[in-house]
Amino acid sequence: MACDGYMTIWQLAPNELVQLDGARGTKMRITRGTLWITLERDLRDIVLNAGDTFTIDRGGVTVIEAQGEATVCVDAHSVDVRRGAVGALNPIRRFGAWLGGLILNAERQRRWVPYV
After folding, report:
1. For 28-77, what is each residue's pLDDT tens digit?
2. CATH code of residue 19
3. How many domains does the chain have?
């Protein structure tokens, strides 16, 4: 795993999210796994595999999701980084998980009566 010249190494768990704010110019080198990257106000979906490098070319928020276990070498200066599990950074996903739990719980409590 050659990360010469990079400041930080991230070991990401499957489905782990990293949210970067103000990361324009940040360089990433993927040494293991696959990453999905989306940038604010950008229609591209960027998928990187082991051996790929990418430099964030826009300001705003960047969201990175590990598609499995991943290792990323990062060269960033003064970037706000938030890490969490899937849904930890997205209130819509959190709400969906909560609602799904309510529905499953209601199904478990329902009593079925055979037709007579």
Report:
1. 999 999 999 999 888 888 999 999 999 999 888 889 999 999 999 988 76
2. 2.60.120.10
3. 1
